[in-house]
Amino acid sequence: MAGSGAVSLVLGECAHVFHAAGARLVLCGRDAGRLQEVVQKLTAASSSHSKTKTYAPRTVTFDLAEAETVVRAAEEILQCYGQVDVLINNAGISYRGNILDTDLSVQRAVMDTNYFGPIALTQDAASKHATQAYFDCLRAEVEQYGLAVTVVSPGYIRTNLSLNA
To answer: Count of CB atoms within 10 A of residue 135's CB?
Structure first.
């Protein structure tokens, strides 16, 4: 199992369950010190009362927001055990503010970590869904001003865009 955002509560709990079951873990995150704390907790918990053979968790430190590090990190993760059976994309950052007052650079930083980072790690493409979600948030925010936001999702239409993709 490889996980990004390994120091979070959710992934920490997942790591505990997988580790106790004997999974080979590669914990990933931006903070090497906090990753080591998770490793120490997992190791201490398994050595005290586990009947299942457990493996020492490994760590890979990188930032999903930095696209150039994701490829290196993916290679390093694969070198640990040769494959990834379970990937938990749990990394994320948040920003509290309204859309109308938020600078585009902040939007990019959030999207780099929360959207493009996991995409780069898993090579998935869901840009249309991200657009839908963004405008769903905008709709809720500007409703108080009497503005309506509509996203039309007609399904597949054979166009030059789809033919050239």
So the answer is: 14
Range name among 30-34, 53-57, 88-92, 94-98 with the lowest pLDDT average: 88-92
What does the block give as tokens for 86?
A: 């379970």
Buried b (16+ CB within 10 A) or exposed e, 62-87: bbbbeeebbeebbebbeebbeebeeb
DSSP string computed for 114-136 = IIIHHHHHHT---HHHHHHHHHH
Q: Which residues are within 8 A (CB) of 90 and not within 5 positions of it... i.e. 6 or more apart?
A: 3, 4, 5, 6, 8, 10, 11, 14
Q: Is 120:67 a contact under the CB 8 Å cutoff?
A: yes
Question: 18 CB contacts (<8 Å, ≥6 apart)?
Answer: 1, 25, 86
Nearest CA to 77 among 95, 55, 62?
Answer: 62
